[in-house]
Amino acid sequence: MTDQGKPSAAELRRLAEERLAERDARGVEHAPRDAQRLLHELEVHQIELEMQNEELLAARLEIEEGLQRYTELFDFAPVGYVVLDPGGTIREANLEMARMLRLSRQDLGRRFALFVDPGQRAPLAEFLGRVLAEGGEGQASATMEVDLPLESSGALQVRLIASARTAAKPGVLLAVHDVTARRRAETALREESSRKDDFMAALSHELRNPLSPIRASLSVIDRVEPGGEDARKALAIVHRQVDHLVHIVDDLLDVTRIARNKVHLQREPLELGGLVRHTMADHRPEFKARGIALEGHLAPEPLWADADATRLAQVIGNLLGNALKFTPRTGRVEVGLRREGDMAVLSVRDNGAGIAPQTRAHLFEPFTQAPQTLDRSRGGLGLGLAMVKGLVELHRGTVEVASAGLGRGCEFTVRLPLTAAPQVRAVPAAPAPSRSGRRVLVIEDSVDGADAMGDLLALDGHEARVAYDGPSGLALARDFRPEIVFCDIGLPEMDGYEVARAMRADDALRGTYLVALSGYARPEDREHSAEAGFDWHLAKPPSMEELERVVVERPGSRAAGIARANARSSGSAGGAAGSRTTK
């Protein structure tokens, strides 16, 4: 045998002789001796040719199968492949490469650089020259990223992996990976990270702004005569700034709830015209103080929707607040409400700062704001419009914005599905709640918070006691027998859930009305409170109005209290509002 595994001439002769002997054994007759010898030689040569033909046919089939495999791998690979000659001309391209470059057969023979962004052609030429000069068969591949402009769909960003070909036809083989989606995702992540950094800086600014007047006002109260004019002014400042802080926290919680699909609308038949008028009336003093005209152009006919009044008031209020923020003094804001088919169309248009196209594209995303000056005179956290979009979509509506550019104002348009007007039914008047003093127990590990709440309740005419941990709160409850207990959830050692379970297990305290106090007000937090035995859930910090509503409106009977709680929904606009817990 030869080194290549093929038979030598002598071996081939021997094999042919063996095959002829097999034929003789099968009884093949032969001619006379000389002729027989000649015939024998001819037959041996014929068999040799037959065997060589068989080997050639097998080799041909093997080559064709290899070519077919190469064609399939090259043409149908999910990565673009292109073969360039040393001058950078396209010699071969697979189907994926043809798709990327919008190539046809006529494009073969063109230079690859013609498909690359003009500003990158010189670096590409240097790259290919380096690959040809340094690369040989088996050498490590070189990489480069370039843009491939396309007339109809922008540009593709691709990563080139190049290796030199040093065979009979030298050149460069390029593997071309489409990295457009990856680079867009990286850009989006960088932009989102930048927006979050801006948001954290804005949050720090927005929180410190109200804290400064609060601290200053408290110092004034310490130094002036109690009950005097200066003290009243300082207290008014504290109340306003605390309300502002609560509003900031509410916005953060609302955006988080919307993003996690945790907002549950309290739908009811709602006349949109009345809601828009009331919301405009609530905000009109702010517009008047800024010297901005607020005009309404509302449809005379009633427009009804199946909607959550509190949440839609939030939507309108945020749009009005946005217009107020970006409209200059003596400017004008117009609110419109009209019917278009089976949709109500609410518009808020201003002649203020306008919106740049690059900002408009991301305006409804969280943490996005128009450019601000260093003093952040326009304020805000970039959450209001994200909240608007989320709440409108929960109502199966849409919101969009239009602006002719910076300095040319803008218009927000909300579309909501309409419903038929409801049937009018007489509703019996609810009995006025009793304002008689109640026995109230506050269990809170923050000594300042517990004492302040106890003092407020006592000043409002209730008999209030305070405990600073769960065990002492339980002991005091068994002695004091309160009608209502406000209990913090995050107590040390024995948490509020354990306190509630212990009270429900005690025959003497089982009927006590239990109110959970927590810094969390998500639906799952309210569910946990209900499972532990609480009747109501208040998010910190509760206002005096909320405390009074719970204390005065909840009757002594726990069953009746739950019935009345059911009559009130939990769909308040802010995270600090009370929410009924249900089992």
How would the blueprint of this fold be written?
Blueprint: H1 9-25, H2 33-75, E1 80-84, E2 90-93, H3 95-101, H4 121-134, E3 142-150, E4 154-165, E5 171-178, H5 180-223, H6 229-259, E6 268-271, H7 272-290, E7 293-298, E8 304-307, H8 309-326, E9 332-340, E10 343-350, H9 357-360, H10 384-394, E11 398-402, E12 410-417, E13 439-443, H11 447-459, E14 463-467, H12 470-480, E15 484-488, H13 496-505, E16 513-518, H14 523-532, E17 536-539, H15 544-553, H16 558-567, E18 579-580
Parallel strand pairs: 7-9, 13-14, 13-15, 15-16, 16-17
Antiparallel strand pairs: 1-2, 1-5, 3-4, 4-5, 6-8, 9-10, 10-12, 11-12, 17-18
Structure, described:
This protein has 583 residues and is α/β, with parallel strands linked by helices. The chain has 5 domains: 9-72; 80-178, 2-Layer Sandwich (Beta-Lactamase), CATH 3.30.450; 197-259, Signal transduction histidine kinase, dimerisation/phosphotransfer (DHp) domain (Helix Hairpins); 268-417, 2-Layer Sandwich (Heat Shock Protein 90); 439-580, Rossmann fold (3-Layer(aba) Sandwich). It is built from 16 helices and 18 strands. The strands form 4 sheets. A 6-stranded mixed β-sheet has the order 14-13-15-16-17-18, sandwiched between helices. A 5-stranded antiparallel β-sheet has the order 2-1-5-4-3. A 5-stranded mixed β-sheet has the order 7-9-10-12-11. α13 links the parallel β15 and β16 (513-518). The radius of gyration is 41 Å and the shape is elongated.
